Amino acid sequence: MFPLLRLCYIILVALRYRLDELVLSGIRHPVAYGLLKILRFGRPPRMARGERLRRALESLGPIFVKFGQVLSTRRDLIPLDIAIELALLQDRVPPFPSAQAAAIIETALGASPHTLFRHFEADPVASASIAQVHRAVLHDGREVAVKVLRPGMREVLEKDLALMRILAGMVERLSLDARRLKPRRVVAEFHTYLHDELDLIREAANCSQLRRNFSAENGREGLLMVPEVIWEYTATTVFTMEWMRGIPVSHTERLTEAGVDLKALARTGVEIFFTQVFTDGFFHADMHPGNIYVSDDPATLGRYIALDFGIVGTLSEFDKNYLAQNFLAFFRRDYRRVAQLHIESGWAPATTREEELEGAVRAVCEPYFDRPLSEISLGQVLLRLFQTSRRFNVEIQPQLVLLQKTLLNVEGMGRELDPGLDLWQTAKPYLERWMHERVGLQGFKRQLDREATQWAQLLPQMPRLLHARLSRPDAGPALYLELQRLNQAQRQANRLLAALVAVLAVGVAAAIWFMVQQ
């Protein structure tokens, strides 16, 4: 019942903000034009289309807000006025009352925020779709950010996800193309990620892991700054972390005034992305401009600052190796290898002809090489790849949906910082170095070091285990005789069963004949 009511609410919101006009105005057809005149009732909407869409998404809740946040980074795919308005979703989501935030903190941590902290600001400094952030000061003088989960979030998400599951099932049944995209599996994974985001302890653990990955111990302290988790003030609904100062990555004018090299910043962003994906297999998967800042402190000027760790992605060793080989094959324009990788991984059916898939991939990708990022629309590339893959029944892997989304975010930020950034040439040297470290002598040594502990326990036992195995009597003849006896017993049982069936059939036939004679 709830999904149906939610669907009705979505329709009402769309009508309230005249989103029907937004859709029909983009269709150049006489029928659409006639419907538009009827729906307007002779009057155009009062608000601009971007503002209407933003307000509608805010009314529909966190899932739709996140959708708008992703769209706001793709100014090559949507009109500029809509992109600018959707960008406001990243820091202007209406906050919930401060009294509720204080009550949630007291319930989670056992005391009021004014007791826990030396100073606690009642008014939130930021409000997002899942939670809002308050500034505070610990009793030892450290400044912290206190993230508080919005009340009633689980109920709202369950309704939206239930509706999404129904819609995904309908689309999967009605469309062969959509079936290849596995919408129900995608919604199931989206369900997992969103529920993970509602557990702020899990988010704090993600933050701690990412901070460790980019620590001085790993030699990456110059790439990314991640706040420290204050665990004693963290619970399922409250997350307290170090306060970070910086400039939002989308504020390019402020970054330039602060002396930040935007081109170097864009290249560093690409390196951070590929480091997370291919070295760690653990990456920040919500990298829209509202979650990425740049330090303006003279000591750390130009370093990225990551915030909001509710959604992270993980990749297996197989996924990392497969993706790296695919990227390198693309960079080297080795389309035959791309086709082979798709078939070897099972993405494309085993019966696919390599040369046909190779030619199709070449026709899509070749026109886009040797161009600066400003001249490449990744949306058009993906659309053409989708149209091409349909011929070969290539399946989209749901486990890589977050990676695809993150790559779109990285591209959008790169376009803002340096319109001339060549994403391919920036990433190619890194991937080549990574593959060399994995496949070369360094990779071999690293693998030996990783397995050394296990082998150190097993090697001393090998002589004893080998002697014990060789000292055992040969069980082969006995097993052969036992198999023969089992085979003979099986044949006897089959003959007995056949005889019983024959007797039963004769008895049934005799009974039927006797009844007929009567």
UniProtKB/TrEMBL annotation:
What superkingdom heads the lineage? Bacteria
Q: Which residues cross the membrane?
A: 496-516
Recorded metabolic or biological pathway in which this protein acts? Cofactor biosynthesis; ubiquinone biosynthesis [regulation]
One Pfam family here: ABC1
Where's the Protein kinase domain? 119-504
Q: Which UniProt keywords apply?
A: ATP-binding, Cell inner membrane, Cell membrane, Kinase, Membrane, Nucleotide-binding, Transferase, Transmembrane, Transmembrane helix, Ubiquinone, Ubiquinone biosynthesis
Does the record's keyword annotation contain S-adenosyl-L-methionine?
no
Indicate the family of this protein: Belongs to the protein kinase superfamily. ADCK protein kinase family.
PANTHER family registered for this protein in UniProt: CHAPERONE-ACTIVITY OF BC1 COMPLEX CABC1 -RELATED (PTHR10566), PROTEIN ACTIVITY OF BC1 COMPLEX KINASE 7, CHLOROPLASTIC (PTHR10566:SF113)
Q: What is the name listed in the Swiss-Prot or TrEMBL entry for this protein?
A: Ubiquinone biosynthesis regulatory protein kinase UbiB
Query: Source species, please?
Result: Yanghanlia caeni
Name the gene. ubiB
